[in-house]
Specification:
This protein is 48% helix and 18% strand. The longest helix is centred in the C-terminal third of the chain and has 18 residues. The N and C termini lie far apart (52 Å). A six-stranded parallel beta sheet has the order 2-1-3-4-5-6, with helices on both faces.
Length: 157
């Protein structure tokens, strides 16, 4: 499997490269931010892109917006969002727009390297792999949104 990594933490980026290569996969690029990401994807044609949600320069949502852009440009590209945070709005958009393989895992909840490698392989094979906490937060958001829709105009203002 050919993998492109976009992760700002040098230590985590190097660790991901090492563990994925040790598992027999080829890391074709390891970027510290989203600058040049689209060009690297075009040049390297990875099977999987692993992106952090929060990347430089603002450390807000550059990574997940890049994932959405990649999915729009290349609908079949397998994408794994690996983050410390659940960006509910963007996660919902990413899942809703998903025609292909997709994953959203929380860094702090990845407890086993073999499980992580297996998740990447499942994603490339076409699966959707979501951390249960991501699912819980998205469902919680949906319930909040539905309650807001039931408000009268007066209650909403």
């Amino acid at each position: 499997m050919r993998i492109l990594i976009c992760e700002d933490s040098a230590l985590l980026r190097a660790g991901l490269v090492r563990l994925l290569e040790d598992a027999g996969h080829r890391v074709v690029a390891a970027l510290p931010d989203a600058n040049g990401l689209a060009e690297a994807v075009d040049a390297e044609t990875p099977d999987l892109c692993i992106l952090d949600v929060r990347l430089p320069p603002t450390w807000t949502d550059e990574g997940i917006r890049a994932a959405l852009d990649l999915r729009e440009r290349m609908p079949g590209l397998a994408v794994l969002v690996l983050s410390q945070y659940v960006e509910e709005r963007y996660a919902a958009d990413l899942i809703a727009s998903s025609d292909g393989a997709l994953g959203y895992l929380l860094k702090d909840r990845v407890a086993d390297v073999a499980d992580f490698v297996e998740a990447t392989e499942r994603i490339v094979a076409g699966a959707t792999v979501l951390d249960p906490e991501v699912v819980a937060q998205l469902l919680s958001r949906r319930r909040r949104d539905e309650r807001m829709l039931r408000l009268t105009d007066r209650e909403a203002s």
